[in-house]
Amino acid sequence: MVASRQRILELTIVLAWLAAGCTSPMKINVGGTCILNSDCNQGLVCTWGKCHDACHTSADCPAGGVCVTSSDQSNVCQLPGEMYCIYNHDCPTGLICGVDQKCRKQCQVDIDCLYGEICTSEQICVDLNSAPIVRDGGAGGTGGAPGTAGTSGSHVIDSDASQDVPGSAAGVSSTGGAGSAGGVSGTAGAGSEPLPCPGIGCMGSGGAGGIASAGAIAGAGGTGVIASGTDASAVDGGGGVGGTYQCDDAGNCQCLTIASLGKVAHYGNQSGTGDNTDAFQLYMNTQTKGTATMAMFGNVVGSPRNFTLTADFLKKYDVVILQALEDSEYTGFWTFTSDEVSALSDWVNKGGGLITMSGYGSQSQEVDPVNQLLAPFGISYQPSPDIFVQSDCTDNMCYCADGSIPFGGWNASDSPLVDNLNSTDRQVGVSMGRPITCADCQVMGTWQTNTFVGVHKQVGAGRVLAWADEWVTYTSQWAGDPLYIGKDQCAPRTADKIYAIPQFWYNVFRWVAGDGSGCFQMADTTVIQR
Questions:
Q1: Bridge-based pairing state of the strands 462-467 and 451-459
Q2: What are the structural domains of the chain?
Q3: Is the pTM of this model over 0.70?
Q4: Can you list the pairs that 363-369 forms with residues at least 24 positions away whose Cβ atoms lie under 8 Å?
């Protein structure tokens, strides 16, 4: 009996030891690294190496989340770091980068998508209830009679030469077809563009107004038809606004042509891949509704500049951006001839818009080339000291915005340049930077002891704006992928939550180009536009 009791005691000890040795390790929450589904907390799915919430539709995901099909055919809620992209390779395996710069499932027909989603004309799946989509709208109505042009002015026909158009010439009017009734997709009328809409029934715009010579007002456009649900109502196409337009040989006109001169920034801290300015360049070329283009010159690292500032070169552009004017980081700083300085000054005085930035490196000589070109305008960058240093990040949370310091020191009276920017959730990121000197400039923003961060002035018929830093061009500042720290630890301090980089550039481009007509537009719905 004693032996039996002893045997039972030994067996109990062994079982207790085995139970302790086989205890399951701590389960992983959403966003944590995993290998198997069993690594994750109950109800979560391990895909793309991280634990995700399972879903059937985007309604099952946290607010703002999107339900997608992963590479292993699991339906999961995208993590914030998996949502935004510039290129396809920025997305998790099995997803592609959509026209809205979000990682989406590719499709050919609606059945390829999840319940409640449709396959757009761009062949990506979009949830109808979560965000506006872009599909072909109904066609615009027949264009109205040609507009009556004003007194003589000039209309730039191509990028190489200008041609006067007599003041008595009629404006050009675009023509469209009948609008599709009941919200059925149609083909946009000539001169119109697809519009965002919340459902399948989208709108066709009226024929655009005629284009007049400089200084003239074009005639009104034709009457179009809006097809929205079961209702159809007539709207009038807007008349054109006088001005000089840059057009190609086919007659396609844009209101804002931009030349970026110099090496682009790459010193930021985009998580995982190193930083670049791809988002800035791509945004201006693809997210401005066809109203703007940006060309790059002298941006190949290690190469000397490949342009000369002449009247013929500059007349092709409405806005010029001066970035790092050097062959390579810290070396080969450019110099300009007196003729080039005069050409740029003349171009600005005749209506050109100039934007300058600094803070690209630690060498004080980097300000010399830009100061040479700014001299005629009475603006200069100081070689030292740095404006923004890491000790300014008092809460030690700057890694949440990829190493930049939030800037919100706007001059509230400086409208429209600071419109819809603030010091809480519509800021921009800065780091280091160079102080600016200008005796007669309007001040856009200051830092601490009234150090100028942004200044601008009217010069003749043109405008000049100097910004103390270059981080407003970094891809890391447009997205919300924190450096070194999990996004859940940073909320709501990530770059996409506290920065309004597109709004900043919208304000800057509108002002510096003197665009009072509202021609320049952005597709981004977060940008508050005038």
A1: antiparallel
A2: 37-131 (no CATH), 132-248 (no CATH), 255-512 (3.40.50.880)
A3: no
A4: 363/330, 363/333, 365/333, 366/324, 366/325, 366/326, 366/333, 367/434, 368/333, 368/335, 369/325, 369/326, 369/333, 369/334, 369/335, 369/336
What digits encode the pLDDT tens for the residues 459-469? 999 999 999 99
Q: 119 with 108: CB under 8 angstroms?
A: yes
CB 207 within 8 Å of CB 192: yes
Residues 416-457 pLDDT 10s: 999 999 998 899 988 888 999 999 999 999 998 789 999 999
**Are the CB atoms for 58 and 65 separated by under 8 Å?**
yes
Cis amide prior to 376 (ω within 30 degrees): no
- Count CB atoms within 10 A of the CB of residue 89: 10
Residue in this structure with the two tokens 């994750």, named with its chain if needed: 40
Q: Length of the chain, please?
A: 530
> Distance of CA 236 to CAs 140, 172, 219, 223, Å?
10, 16, 12, 5
Those residues with Cβ within 8 angstroms of residue 15's Cβ, 6 or more apart along the chain or in another chain = none
CA 363/CA 302 separation, integer angstroms: 17
Could you write out the three-class secondary structure of 272-285? CCCCCCHHHHHHHH
Cα–Cα distance list, 229 to 57, 182, 200, 203, 298 (Å)? 24, 5, 8, 10, 51
Q: How many other CB atoms are found less than 10 A from the CB of residue 413?
A: 8
Confidence label for 336 from pLDDT (cuts 50, 70 and 90): very high
> Residue 341: what pLDDT?
97
Taking only the tens place, the pLDDT of each residue in 364-418 is: 888 999 999 999 999 999 988 788 776 777 666 777 777 788 899 999 999 999 9
